[in-house]
Write a structure and sequence with these properties.
- The complex is a heterodimer.
- By secondary structure, chain A is an alpha/beta fold.
- In chain A, the strands form 6 sheets. Chain A has a 7-stranded mixed sheet with strand order 13-10-14-15-17-16-23, sandwiched between helices. A 6-stranded mixed sheet of chain A has the order 3-4-2-5-6-7. A 5-stranded mixed sheet of chain A has the order 20-22-21-24-25, sandwiched between helices.
- In chain A, strand 24, helix 18 (565-574) and strand 25 (581-585) form a beta-alpha-beta unit.
- Chain B is α/β, with parallel strands linked by helices.
- Classes of the chains: A alpha/beta, B alpha/beta.
- Chains A and B meet through helix 1, strand 9, helix 7, strand 12 and strand 13 of A and strand 2, helix 3, helix 5, helix 10 and helix 11 of B.
- Strand 19 (454-455) of chain A pairs parallel with strand 2 of chain B.
């Protein structure tokens, strides 16, 4: 059955489609093909996998934001729901915007009570069509997904040639699969063209040139490439969603780019360790011995690693930890996104610790920051966290092409060579020679007589000799603070964006909130609400953060966690008065939406747009 | 805790090895362990073994966990880099260090609390990965630094200094190491330097995971009647399966043993292990037989010592991972970074 209502959403290249499927039903590749076909037509898309912690049988969704202006965050709401999962029918139906569309499998008739009066319904007898065409039950199931892509292509105006090309690419080397998929697609296409009314769907795709040179890549793959380019040679990891694909991508890229062709040997070592504790232990051991090393994990993994992180901090050993954050605490929501590990990473381990955190906003920065983290770890001789999340890590995102300057040299930090030691320089492992808190180190095996020292997590003097003396302890922990201060100038600096008009309202945000914030910024502007933006890209916070807060009466701090963790850090580390920082928090496990941010800010700034503060407030 | 500075002055007539080093050059700081601690004898055996093998001290990386035993790396090879890691997790740190630079010798020193209790998992996985190292457990069945609690190697029924009886089944690290794939497995006694030194030498020259369990009585907390890790008990129940002669090179073979009693095993670097059999029919090349033999003696309350198993052809983790011969920590941009051109090509594929 199909029915039409008077009110209809009509839009070209600007809408949200959501596919509701069952995990394991083979829908992922069809849904991704839909998204990619739009990209190939030059229309920006940003898809998001919303999946259960399960292999088969539970509900899964794939939400595609289509927006030719390039907004890549979640907007909120759904214009077209492709409802393939009877289990979630009711809630899927509720998510559709008024005047939106529901495409469903009409093989079995449903009573009118199962629909909504303000939603346009498009029924396609997918099961019936596949049952008629295919005899193999698996084909019937799998190809149903491609059939609805065909229907959508007909109704939206997606060019069939684009899909044909994509099918060819996807099943390259598996020629047997191309033709059945193409047939199924054409079956859907013809059904859309011949059986359904041509204007049954008000959402259209038109070719544009709005993608440009941007690439479409998952954050985890980009971070893995960052580790390859940044010179990581040792990777130790333990499988955990959503970070596993990062280590797997590192393995793939290393096998491609890091094999010595003449000897067939590898210029890398990857160990799938027995647990996260061993993973970080291997990273610490390799870092101690001068190899660039990293691990990829998520919240529960970081929890397990904390003792070693404290050792690396106090013994001053380089280590890179890529934390692809997910919903916590405990097992929380293992397949959903959050930014809720800031405090547990910034202060990981017992005692007084502070760690450097980097916050990438997209795959491009996942690449840049992974490579930068390896430099920083060597330079600062300390653990560096790259705080990505499931939203960036496991979803394809359109971003600027990855770039590398061949003139760039790895910064190995203060490592004394045999020649340095021979030159008679005083070597004290924990001597602050340069006043920046960063001591010099030697690698094992460097010199027969000089430079050997003992590394330990207990207190020692500047020459690495065991000590239980208070002054020696103070010397070390105060120097570590000095080192942390030095880090401020070395980490990626915040990015600011000013409103069209001077304003007393600022917004601080970070990481994957970025694209939704960009859209909210424009939406607020359209309502006459002006806010200045500051995207924090690292902890420790630089002076630009203090300046920004001083310039604004109210600063909204947007985070994807319950406890306003970034706000807490701003308060405690920068000594900013709590009242100045207004938390805006989104933490249901789905990526934050532009709509949520817009509404949250709008309702907190009635009668906005007062004159800017002259000279700045005291932070 | 106080330290006595060790005088640097060497007696001019001290014998030197081929590198020109005396044994003193292999010493470390003055031990802070209790007088008579078995661990100090193991340190002395390590010093002796490294000196005799002409090992350059700075080419050794010595790693340990936390505990009495783990303090000992500070007491030998003062010119080596040492690393006190965290309790029970030395094996992973050593694995990482080894991956970073395959050219150094790796010495892991641990205790029974460190390896059999908190660190059992890491011990197991280092063995099964075949990390190229000498892993020594200084085994006294007790937690010394926390004053006398049982460790997981304490025998069932053995008595603590305070009179508590251990009711848990002990973990036999030697049997575990065999099962997990260690390719050089030995047990010795800190009071038997004659046996221990050649066992350490063989292990240092072995490629792969070499494990030596050394019963090392704790004079403070576990050297009383009722303990199965006391000097008296071990001396009374020690049964050696073989006596080992270690020859760094094949051409140094001497014929001190008559044929029929001797097994020779050549290791990767050409060094030779000559084993004089003491136990009739004992074959250190047979993993299964070794396990049975150990279990049978254990049931009788006997402590089997000697080289229990060796596979001279074993490979190590680097072999398994097919790692390049140059140490990974020495590779630079040219070897590691695929370059901007490759990235541009990758970008082009990513739409």
């Amino acid at each position: 059955m199909s029915h039409r209502i008077v009110k209809r959403i009509e839009s070209v290249n600007d809408f949200v489609v959501k596919f509701a499927n069952v995990n394991g039903s083979g829908s992922a590749s069809a849904n991704e093909m839909f998204a990619r076909s739009l990209l190939r037509m030059g229309v920006p898309v940003s898809p998001r996998n919303i999946f259960p912690s399960n292999i088969q049988g539970l509900p899964t969704w794939y939400e595609v934001r289509v927006n030719e202006r390039g907004y890549l965050g979640r907007r909120g709401g759904v214009d077209l729901m492709v409802a393939m999962n009877p289990q979630t029918w009711d809630r899927d139906l509720q998510e559709i915007e008024s005047g939106g569309y529901l495409l469903y499998d009409s093989s079995k008739p449903l009573p009118p009570s199962r629909f909504r009066d303000d939603v346009n319904v498009i029924g396609v007898p997918l099961t019936e069509m596949c049952a008629t065409r295919y005899t193999d039950p698996r084909e019937r199931q799998l190809l149903k997904n491609i059939v609805y892509v065909g229907v959508l292509a007909a109704l939206m105006g997606i060019e069939p040639e684009v899909i044909a090309t994509l099918l060819g690419e996807q099943y390259k080397g598996k020629a047997k699969l191309i033709q059945p998929n193409l047939d199924a697609f054409m079956m859907g296409l013809h059904h859309g063209r011949d059986v359904l009314e041509s204007d049954v769907l008000g959402l259209r795709v038109e070719r544009r040139d709005a993608v440009g040179k941007r690439i479409f890549i998952e954050g985890n793959a980009a971070a893995a490439l960052g580790c390859v380019y940044g010179g990581a040679t040792v990777c130790a990891w333990y499988p955990i969603t959503p970070s596993s694909s990062l280590a797997e991508a590192f393995q793939k890229y290393c096998a491609k780019y890091r094999v010595d062709k003449a000897s067939g040997t590898n210029r890398y070592a990857i160990v799938q360790a027995e647990d996260e504790i061993a993973s970080i232990g291997i990273v610490v051991g390799a870092g101690w011995n001068g190899a660039r090393s990293f691990t990829a994990t998520s919240g529960p993994g970081v929890s397990l690693m904390t003792e070693f992180i404290g050792l690396a901090y106090f013994a001053e050993i380089p280590a890179t930890i890529i934390n692809v954050q997910r919903g916590g605490p405990s097992t929380g929501m293992p397949t959903r996104t959050q930014q809720a590990d800031l405090l547990s990473c910034a202060y990981a381990s017992h005692g007084d610790t502070k760690h450097v955190l980097l916050f990438p906003e997209d795959p491009r920065e996942c690449f840049d920051f992974a490579a930068a983290a390896l430099d920083l770890a060597d330079r600062l001789q300390t653990p560096i966290f790259v705080m990505t999340d499931l939203d960036i890590g496991m979803n394809h995102r359109l971003c600027e092409p990855l770039q590398w300057d061949d003139k760039r040299r790895y910064d190995r930090g203060k490592v004394m060579s045999r020649a340095d030691l021979d030159a008679g320089r005083d070597f004290g492992r924990y001597l602050d020679v340069d006043g920046d808190g960063i001591p010099y180190r030697t690698l094992p095996g460097t010199h027969p007589e000089r430079g050997a020292y003992f590394t330990r997590g207990t207190t020692r003097d500047a020459y690495a000799r065991y000590s239980e003396a208070g002054p020696d302890y103070l010397y070390n922990v105060e120097r570590l603070l000095r080192k942390f201060d030095t880090a401020k100038a070395m980490v990626p600096q915040p990015v600011e964006r000013r409103a069209a008009r001077p304003t007393r309202h600022g917004v601080i945000y970070f990481g994957s909130t970025s694209p939704a914030m960009a859209e909210a910024f424009d939406a607020l502007h359209a309502r006459g609400l002006h806010v200045d933006l500051l995207r924090v890209r690292a902890f420790p916070f630089s002076e630009a953060v203090d300046r920004f807060v001083a310039e604004h009466e109210t600063v909204f701090v947007i985070e994807q966690n319950r406890d306003a963790q970034l706000r807490t850090m701003l308060m405690t580390e920068q000594e900013i008065a709590p009242a100045r920082l207004v938390p805006i928090l989104h933490f249901d496990g789905t990526p934050i939406t532009a709509r949520f941010i817009t509404e949250a800010i709008a309702e907190r700034m009635p009668g906005a747009n007062v004159q800017p503060i002259k000279g700045g407030l005291v932070a | 805790m106080t330290y006595i500075t060790k005088p640097k002055l060497h007696h001019p007539t001290l014998p030197k090895n081929t590198l020109g080093f005396t044994r003193r050059d292999y010493e470390g700081k003055v031990s802070t362990l209790c007088a008579g601690c078995g661990h100090d004898s193991i340190s002395a055996a390590l010093i002796q073994a490294c000196w005799e093998l002409d090992i350059e001290p700075h080419r050794v990386a010595k790693l340990s966990g936390i505990g009495c035993s783990s303090k000992t790396p500070d007491y030998f090879l003062g010119n080596s880099h040492g690393f006190n890691t965290v309790h029970g997790r030395m094996p992973s740190v050593l694995t990482g260090a080894n991956l970073a630079n395959r050219e150094l010798l790796y010495l892991g020193v641990s205790g029974d609390g460190d390896s059999a209790s908190i660190g059992l998992g890491q011990f197991a996985h280092a063995m099964r990965r075949g990390v190229n190292m000498t892993y020594i457990v200084e085994n006294n069945g007790v937690y010394g630094l926390t004053k006398g609690q049982f460790s997981a190697t304490a025998d069932q029924g053995s008595k603590s200094k305070k009179g508590a009886i251990n009711t848990d089944t002990p973990i036999d690290l030697v049997s575990l190491a065999l099962q997990l794939g260690a390719s050089y497995v030995a047990r010795s006694f800190s009071g038997d330097k004659e046996q221990l030194v050649p066992l350490i030498k063989g292990a240092l020259r072995h490629r792969g995971a070499a494990f030596i369990d050394v019963i090392s009585p704790c004079v403070a907390f576990n050297n009383h009647p009722g303990s199965t890790k006391s000097y008296d008990y071990v001396r009374a129940h020690n049964e050696a399966v073989n006596r080992l002669d270690f020859m760094p090179r094949r051409d140094a073979i001497s014929a001190s043993y008559s044929p029929g009693e001797v097994i020779e095993i050549t290791q990767h670097d050409g060094s030779l292990l000559r084993l004089r059999k003491l136990a009739v029919g004992y074959d250190p090349g047979d993993r299964l037989a070794a396990m049975n033999h150990i279990a049978a003696h254990e049931a009788r309350g006997e402590i089997l010592t000697g080289l229990l198993y060796v596979n001279g052809d074993a490979d190590d983790l680097h072999g398994h991972l097919k790692t390049v011969a140059t140490p990974l920590n020495r590779l630079g941009e040219a070897e590691l970074c695929p370059g901007a051109g490759v990235l541009a090509a990758l970008n082009a594929e990513l739409v």
